[in-house]
From TrEMBL:
It comes from the Eukaryota. This is Uncharacterized protein. It comes from Linnemannia exigua. InterPro entries: Nucleotide-diphossugar_trans (IPR029044).
Length: 94
């Protein structure tokens, strides 16, 4: 991530949404880097996947109805799972 717009926080607050992110790229023209923030039906990890998570591993969203942040429409995407590079959670919700 190279820069954050000066008005980003204000725009996030003004969105009225509870838990949001904005798509983040690795640099100008670079690829999207948020793979841990998504919206959709959550999969339940297997026992093996849960053990991997508990040891600091990752679980990438699987075959259910999931959209990654790069697929969301609009300026900000509401989330069902967080882990985003730029994350806003309204205090009353947290």
């Amino acid at each position: 991530m190279i820069r954050v717009p000066n008005d980003l926080l204000g725009r996030m607050i003004d969105s009225g949404k509870d838990a949001i992110t904005t798509a983040t790229r690795s640099g100008p023209g670079g690829g999207f880097i948020d793979w841990n923030a998504w919206v959709g039906e959550r999969i339940k990890p297997s026992a093996e996947e849960q053990a991997t998570l508990e040891q600091g591993g990752i679980l990438v969203p699987g075959p259910k109805s999931v959209k990654l942040t790069r697929e969301l429409q609009g300026e900000f995407g509401e989330l069902d799972s967080v882990g985003a590079t730029v994350l806003f959670v309204r205090g009353e919700v947290h």
